[in-house]
Design goal:
The complex is a heterodimer. Chain A contains nine helices and no strands. Chain A is mainly alpha-helical. The chains are: A mainly alpha, B mainly alpha.
Amino acid sequence: MMAEQERDEEVSASYHALGSEEPSAALDAAILAAARRRRLHWKGPVSIAAVLVLAVGVTLRMQRERPDAEPVVLAPQVMETPPPASPARELARPVQRAADAASARAAAPAAQARSRGESAAKPAEDALAPEAWLERIVELRKAGRAWEADESFAAFKRKFPDYRIPDAMLGRVAPAQ
Amino acid sequence: MLAYRQGDAGAFETLYGRHKGPLYRYVLRSLRERAQAEELYQEIWMRVIEARGRYTVQAKFTTWLYAIAHHRLVDHWRKRGLQLVDLEGADTAAHRAYEPEPRAEGREDLRRLAAALAALPEAQRETFLLHEEAGMTLAEIAAATGTNEEAAKSRLRYARASLRKAMHDG
């Protein structure tokens, strides 16, 4: 047994004597730059989420000022638009989305009524305690509403930047990529 | 990895610095062709970056990383019509060229070791490299390569025996 262990150690030592090649500095730089770029892509969804939170705030204020009026909600296309394809478009979209939201509120009451069950809960999200908000995101993911969950998660991170999400919960709420 | 997933780019640099050498040598000594190895090495890290949201603490990062690397290698072999098969005890000819490191020059036993490593069946060489480079246990190797501990143990034993024989048969 001991002899076998010694023989294994001899093979191991000889193997490590072969050398220790490392990736080139250029390869290192390319990979690290890619990791940083992926992180920067968070800025798009975060800014979109900020616009949504603002829109929700305005909506709530309008409701409070006109308690007899029909409840106003965001149109579903505002919540389900796919991720932006380029940084330039990311910068342009929040403005466009705000405009879309305004026109949708005016022009699509039927769609609003259909989506009320899903979207009416959204405005309250910002007022939730962190734990309840995270549970809301879990529900969105379970319902297959991944993009809304991503946006909600981004908004959560913005509102509670220092909140330590438990590891078990993080796996259930964080974006898939 | 969890810190990186939450947006800490510095955490990725730490992880990368810790694993780049072993992973690079694992890929390079599996493929033995530097350009291909660099391409695959880069692909593996891109996959890690893309899949960061799916990483959970249930798996040790090293196991998760090398599971990704293993799958990329398997894809590579498949594209070339090869498979990671066990040929335990088979007499596989040293038909592939392998250039040992400069440090091996002047040491005939190391040159033979490098040649024997290149000639090992893929599954045996992979197990040996995961053990020596990544410092993985048999259980971790089994998890990363989708096999069981007994198979990993057997592969490692055969690999070591072949390499030892090559070193002393000069």
